[in-house]
Design brief:
Layout (H helix, E strand, L loop, with lengths): L3 H18 L13 H22 L1 H7 L2 H29 L3 H6 L1 H14 L4 H18 L6 H5 L4 H27 L6 H25 L5 H4 L3 H32 L2 H8 L1 H14 L5 H33 L3
Helix pairs in contact: 1-12, 1-14, 2-3, 2-10, 2-12, 4-9, 4-10, 6-7, 6-9, 6-13, 7-15, 10-12, 14-15
């Protein structure tokens, strides 16, 4: 049986993957508004939640509200949320809504390799099988990305592909930097750290708003800020802020504290599986054979990764428990 800390980390990583996968439904719920409008509402609401968390835990929060902590959290907010959002959105605009997610499927593989190289969590021979399953699953799920139909909707691969690769780099950077930041702050509660990141992201979106409005990226000024015009945007933005951003950030911070990067990376790939399932529900259709096979192989890779890492941890615990 898994020990409690390992179990909490695994469930936190899987929940974070589910929460982040809710982003895939955004294009279907924003109507005439842009993804930038949605991001503004979502990040501002998330920041308000962050302020509430700090206020409700003010005695604990005051001990950790240093300039260094605030700057570190603000930097992570840009890398993992605002900067990542801008590059992902740009990739989707220029490379299309199919090719961009296909490149983002590289994240768990790159992160697992870099994480294991840095931490040495497992011998490489144990990591190869789950990584191979994840790679095969991603290829199957994204098998239609580079067909003639998909490429026909592309505006500019020269802009879209670099933006998609930049998004991959930002998310990998965020995952490693966030775990490193928590490692040197063992006394920092996950809730307080999450609140600081949420506030940083909200402030940055507010700062970006005048620039984005000048570039005509926001539709709110045209369609109106009133409840009649933007009520559904506020409701959906608030709902996903609470579930996908607040809960997702908190769960990922818990996972970052309790799991090696190489395992957390392979668990986060379940976001793709959740996203495919959610997309099928939205489109009210059954999966193709390739999609079904891809999701099944992805899940098999995640299960194998958990089993391999837990087996290694159990062996280490037994070795420690044995008398010398």
């Amino acid at each position: 049986m898994m020990n409690r800390q390992f179990s909490v980390g695994v469930f936190a990583a899987l929940f974070a993957a589910f929460a982040f996968s809710l982003n895939f439904v955004v294009p279907f719920i924003i109507g005439d508004f842009s993804t930038f409008d949605f991001a503004l509402i979502r990040h501002v609401v998330s920041a308000m939640v962050g302020v509430f968390i700090l206020f409700s835990e003010r005695e604990t929060a005051l001990r950790h509200l240093t300039f260094q902590n605030a700057m570190a959290a603000t930097g992570l907010a840009f890398i993992g949320y605002v900067g990542y959002f801008l590059t992902v959105t740009g990739a989707a605009i220029y490379a299309g809504p199919v090719i961009a997610p296909a490149f983002l499927g590289l994240v768990p593989i790159v992160l697992a390799v870099i994480g294991n190289r840095g931490q040495g969590s497992l011998p490489w021979r144990f990591l190869m099988a789950p990584l191979a399953l994840v790679a095969i699953g991603l290829v199957l799920v994204n098998g239609t990305a580079f067909t003639a139909d998909s490429l026909g909707s592309v505006r500019s691969l020269w802009l879209g592909v670099p933006l998609a690769l930049a998004a991959v780099g930002l998310w990998v950077w965020f995952a490693i930097a966030n775990q490193a930041a928590l490692a040197i702050r063992p006394a920092m509660p996950s809730g307080i750290w999450s609140a600081l990141i949420l506030i940083g992201g909200g402030v940055q979106m507010l700062v970006f708003y005048p620039v984005g409005a000048a570039m005509d990226l926001f539709q709110l000024p045209k369609l109106g800020f009133g409840w009649e015009a933007a009520g559904s945007l506020y409701l959906w933005g608030t709902s996903l802020a609470l579930m996908a951003t607040v809960c997702g950030v908190w769960a990922w911070n818990v996972a970052s504290r309790t799991l090696p990067v190489a395992l957390a990376a392979q668990l986060i790939v379940s976001e793709t599986a959740f996203g495919v399932i959610g997309g099928l529900v939205v489109h009210a259709r059954w999966p193709t054979m390739m999609e079904a096979a891809g999701v099944a192989v992805l899940i098999a890779g995640v299960v194998l990764a958990i089993r391999v890492f837990y087996g290694q941890q159990a062996q280490m615990n037994e070795a420690i428990a044995q008398p010398s």
